[in-house]
Amino acid sequence: MGRMPTRDEILKFIADQPGEVTKRDIAKAFNIKGADRIPLKRLLREMSAEGLLEGSRKTGMRGQGDLSSVSVVEITGRNKEGYLVARARRDGDVLDGPQDPIIEIDDSPPRNRRHRPSPPVSPGDTALARLRRVNQDKYIARIIRKLGDAGGQVIGVVRERSDGLWLVPADRRERHDYQLEKDTKAAHGDLLVCEKLPGPRMAAKRARLKENIGAADDPHAFSLISIAEQGLPTVFPDAVMAEAEAVKEADIKGREDLTALPFITIDPADARDHDDAVFTEPDPDAEGGFIVWVAIADVAAYVTPGSSMDSEAKKRGNSVYMPDRVVPMLPERLSNDLCSLREGETRPCLAVRMHVDASGKKTGHKFFRGLMRSAAKLSYSEAQRAFDGDCPPAFSALNDAVLQPLWRAYQCMAAARDNRQPLRINRPERRVEMDDKGQITRIYVPPVLEAHKLIEEMMVSANVCAAETLEKHKRALIYRVHDTPPDERVRALSDFLRSFGVKLSLGQTLLPQLFNGLMAQAEGETYAPTVSEAVLRTQAQAVYAVDNIGHFGLNLARYAHFTSPIRRYADLTVHRALVSVLGFGKDGQTEQEAEALADIAEAVSLTERRAMLAERSAGERYLAAHMAERIGESFSGRISGVSRAGLFVTLDDSGADGLIPISRLGDERFYADENNMFMTGGTTGTVFRIGEAVEVELEEATPLKGGLLFSLREGGTYGGKIKKGPKKRGAFRRPAPRGRRSRGRR
After folding, report:
1. I want to staple 467 with a disulfide (CB 3.0 to 4.6 A). Which of 223, 407, 560, 736 is the partner?
2. Does 227 map to a domain?
3. Domain enclosing residue 91, as ranges
4. 3-state DSSP call for residue 62?
């Protein structure tokens, strides 16, 4: 029988455990059994009464001041490594003293595929989190769910009412307006970032001004809202700007002189920076083969580890592209000047020379740290004209020696790509064109040219070379990984496709060509877009990681982002690693960065996700503003999502997304199967499937929230026939099941 522990021994034992501790845990640790547990319980009660312990019999105990394993936290910002950090809330207040522990948010994908990924959070959000103690001063947290009204910040527009100023939130998930403090320095129509204030549950919600970011009727305000929602840093600190302005031309000593090679850049017509250039020539040692050069701006020569620019770039993780602006990862002095491969200007670069045989297979490669000079700047359309035999006069001198060899080399590489069979999902990407005043002038789907695919294929090959080289030198690196689709999604896809007569046999090895075959089965059929959308929804999300699991979508065993160090921090780490292992200089990767690669990979995966959310929400707001004058018009679209709230629809012409509330599908009860991506009417059996064509009427547009509300005009299938919806809201009703009350609106 063990001896009774002292108070200090109990406190030390609890402090050493990663979570909460029960009385049974303490008894077991000190070998206390039988009747001796009675004095132990008495001692623990005394310690609780003295304030030494917190917790209860049911939830377990913890040391005074320790945090519960499940706690409410408020996201307060990001640390210098780029991770989201939080503070715990107790009794509605944030613990923010110098002795209170820091909570670092873990948003990496769950290791067990059966577990749901953590919901996204941003600075100002409040969430319920599961905590794991690392040491006395630090916890790691995984978000369980976001708590919309439990604190944090809110962004919205000021409305003046009889009882004062109110904030109407821009987030469509916010259900309440917020009353602003009486001394708030703001006017009707201002766009504010505010702090939510605690208060009685049934009273009006209140908020306090944090930042006035301009007028809500400014067309550029929609991007500002999305930037503020995601906590994107937009202003470079003074130290970063000073460092950028002080940067001098890179040292040319020891560099390979590649200026005699006529590299060219091929980019969108409106591109301001050019971070990659290409050149090809026939390989004299391989009949029908080519030497393919890819040169990338040498950002590592200017942004050194530990510098102010490096710290800021790591925090940002990537550039963010909105319809009316770019939030860059690096100051303009670098991104649009020193690191842009401008026509006719000598620039430092990191280049790879690849040997490709007549079948398109890469037979070897070598990296160089050199100097290059772009011979010409072409847009995709200009390059495509040359490839099609109609070379623009401005580039006629380059056509035979540069452009046509480039085209022939790509044809070889494309044949090898087709044999490899990466995943092919044709999903049109729309572009929003705006004028200087922030007004949308055009929404269009740019044609997918072979010139786009040429650059893409050469960049993919260069990325593979980077990964292979670092692996050969046994150097840790950040891979771009894409996991195979989860089994449960594949089973759901199989069930879903069976109704279309598209067969997916389970149990076979999952390869991209399997999914390509499914889409080929549906090619030419009316349900082809439905199958393509379902296949896309089945795929996992690509992320950055130091553990290589390959890239499923590209069907590649190893892949690392190398070709865009101006706008992606992961690429910059790969550049530095190559500089180090190939002896290209003393400004390569440091030991500290090499050891931190796993953390950096997680951080840049998060910033990439944050950027995607900001870009999408900004686009939604601009599209909603563009559609606001078209209330009552009918549009063709496709079902892009199914939920208990209703059907999400994407319009064919503009790509705008909106919702048909479930209450506007009729009076019968509808059942949403979100996993299998369809909705069924309980009485009529009408089915709505993801990807199906529908005709909708626009009923409401709220640009501030980026929301569109539709009613159904036509769509859904029953017995193979298309069901027609109401022409006017409320005019079409299906009978409710007998003996059951009509569900009406939710």
Report:
1. 560
2. no
3. 70-147
4. strand
